[in-house]
């Protein structure tokens, strides 16, 4: 009851009106889950499942995609010479977290339908599962088999779990404040004024955006996972050092893991996964990445971003190398990566970063304009920070950050795993000093993934 009340207060402080959406999604899937479980015929089970899917997708579609479909329809008609004088777009705010909690409640109904889960009869526990505040607004997207089972079981305070949670919160804050927020003004400046810059600056901008979005979203996930630990709850890992991925398939096993897992369990496998013919498997991969792109935002840029990742993933799949790195990390048994691994990491980073031109741009036109500017103005220039700071400080910072993450790459849940108390104290001190040094009141500190 305490966690449920805290979660609703937490969300309601942003906009209390949208609490009714969470409550509606909770009520529908709670009773749908009971109905699916108690139904004797497959037909009635399917009908109840479709009630859950249609309700949640409609909720998401109305608030997130309505204007996108209307605008796309108007643009389509204009190609044939039909110009609509007025459109029926809505001036509404996207409810924060709606992409996450609708997927979470849907997964509950789907797991019951596939007989992976027995529904709970405790509405308070289920409502807490849906609205659990650490991961409510940006994940990780949890399955009921993991989170709900912990909510319904007795939890006892554990000192080690608590301190591990505090360490994750500290590391998450560092990634958010010192990495993501510090380089945000540079990225914003370059993408907003890309026509004024040379290729070297544009490449710098999109490369820094890769670190910004990683620091921002993985930082949030660390804070969420760490906060949950304070309540005796273990959330799933959402990032497993994707910067050191050796191909695109491994990247998607390490980046936004909860979303990738959701699509694999509830879309890819039901479509046949990789157990069908190669042609159908490729079709399934394309569907997954297009849907994933569309999930990220109501803009053709995200669909294009998803399509690019499908194109990058398919060759890896056809060569049978999509699972080769599932159970090991780079430089598994050595101090440093091999020359081959370094080349693989750099190539993967380049391909993923290239796709982020579309992810970050405001429109398809801007994305292609950004790429065209790189091609047409291929020259080198020294970039000046928009706020007048020294750029060398940022390069040193990112270099140290990459080396440190490489050092802790074997365990994403232990950022300060040192045997020496003195070394741990020095690490905590440097992280806190870094946040104080790079904190700037003029920077917008909202999390990037709140918009999705």
Short synopsis of the structure:
Helix content is 65%, strand content 0%. It is an all-alpha fold. The longest helix has 38 residues, at 42-79.
Would you write up a description of this structure?
With about 450 residues, this protein is an all-alpha fold. The chain has 16 helices and no strands. It has helices at about 1-15, 20-40, 40-80, 100-115, 125-130, 145-150, 160-190, 200-230, 250-255, 255-270, 280-295, 300-320, 340-360, 365-375, 390-405, 420-440. Helix 2 (about 20-40) packs across helix 3, helix 2 packs across helix 5 and helix 7 packs antiparallel against helix 8 (about 200-230).
Strand content: under 5%
Indicate the percent of residues in helices: 55-70%
- Give the distance, in angstroms, between the N- and C-terminal Cα atoms: 29 Å
Q: Tell me the series of helices and strands, N- to C-terminal.
A: HHHHHHHHHHHHHHHH
Overall mean pLDDT: 91
Structural class: mainly alpha
Quick one: how many beta strands?
0
The rounded Rg comes to 23 Å
Q: Detail the poorly predicted runs.
A: none
SS element count, helices: 16
Shape: globular
Main sheet record? none
Outline the secondary-structure elements:
Layout: H1 2-15, H2 19-38, H3 42-79, H4 98-113, H5 123-131, H6 147-152, H7 159-192, H8 199-230, H9 248-254, H10 257-268, H11 278-296, H12 300-318, H13 339-360, H14 364-376, H15 391-407, H16 421-438
Helix pairs in contact: 1-5, 2-3, 2-4, 2-5, 3-4, 7-8, 7-16, 8-13, 8-14, 10-11, 11-12, 12-13
Keywords:
16 helices; globular; 452 residues; mainly alpha; 0% strand; 65% helix
């Amino acid at each position: 009851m305490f966690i449920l009340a805290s979660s609703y207060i937490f969300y309601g402080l942003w906009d209390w009106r949208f609490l009714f959406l969470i409550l509606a999604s909770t009520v529908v899937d709670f009773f749908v889950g009971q109905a699916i479980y108690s139904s004797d015929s497959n037909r009635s089970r399917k009908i109840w499942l479709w009630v859950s899917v249609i309700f949640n997708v409609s909720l998401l579609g109305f608030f997130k995609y309505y204007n996108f479909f209307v605008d796309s329809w108007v643009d389509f008609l204009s190609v044939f010479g039909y110009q609509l004088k007025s459109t029926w777009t809505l001036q509404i705010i996207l409810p924060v977290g709606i992409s996450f909690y609708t997927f979470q409640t849907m997964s509950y109904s789907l797991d019951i339908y596939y007989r992976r889960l027995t529904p709970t009869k405790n509405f308070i526990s289920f409502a807490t599962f849906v609205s659990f505040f650490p991961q409510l607004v940006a994940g990780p997207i949890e399955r009921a088999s993991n989170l709900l089972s912990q909510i319904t079981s007795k939890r006892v305070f554990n000192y080690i779990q608590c301190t591990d949670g505090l360490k994750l919160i500290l590391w998450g804050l560092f990634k958010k404040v010192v990495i993501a927020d510090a380089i945000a003004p540079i990225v914003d400046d370059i993408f907003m004024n890309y026509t004024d810059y040379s290729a070297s600056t544009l490449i710098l901008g999109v490369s820094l955006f890769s670190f910004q979005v990683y620091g921002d979203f993985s930082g949030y996930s660390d804070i969420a996972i760490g906060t949950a630990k304070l309540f005796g709850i273990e959330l799933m890992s959402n990032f497993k050092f994707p910067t050191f991925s050796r191909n695109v398939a491994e990247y998607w096993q390490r980046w936004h893991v909860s979303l990738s897992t959701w699509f694999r369990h509830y879309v890819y496998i039901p479509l046949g996964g990789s157990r069908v013919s190669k042609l159908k498997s490729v079709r399934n991969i394309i569907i997954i990445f297009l849907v994933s792109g569309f999930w990220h935002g109501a803009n053709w840029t995200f669909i294009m971003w998803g399509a690019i990742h499908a194109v990058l993933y398919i060759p890896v799949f056809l060569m049978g190398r999509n699972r080769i790195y599932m159970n090991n990390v780079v430089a598994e048994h050595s101090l440093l990566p091999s020359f081959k691994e370094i080349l693989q990491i750099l190539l993967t980073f380049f391909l993923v970063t290239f796709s982020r031109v579309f992810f970050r741009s405001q429109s398809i036109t801007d994305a292609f304009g950004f790429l065209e500017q790189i091609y047409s103005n291929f020259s080198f220039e020294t970039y000046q920070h928009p706020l007048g700071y020294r750029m060398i400080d940022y390069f040193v910072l990112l270099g140290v950050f990459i080396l440190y993450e490489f050092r802790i790459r074997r365990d994403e849940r232990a950022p300060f795993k040192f045997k020496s108390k003195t070394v741990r104290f020095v690490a905590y001190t440097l992280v806190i000093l870094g946040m104080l040094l790079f904190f700037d009141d003029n920077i917008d500190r909202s999390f990037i993934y709140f918009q999705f």
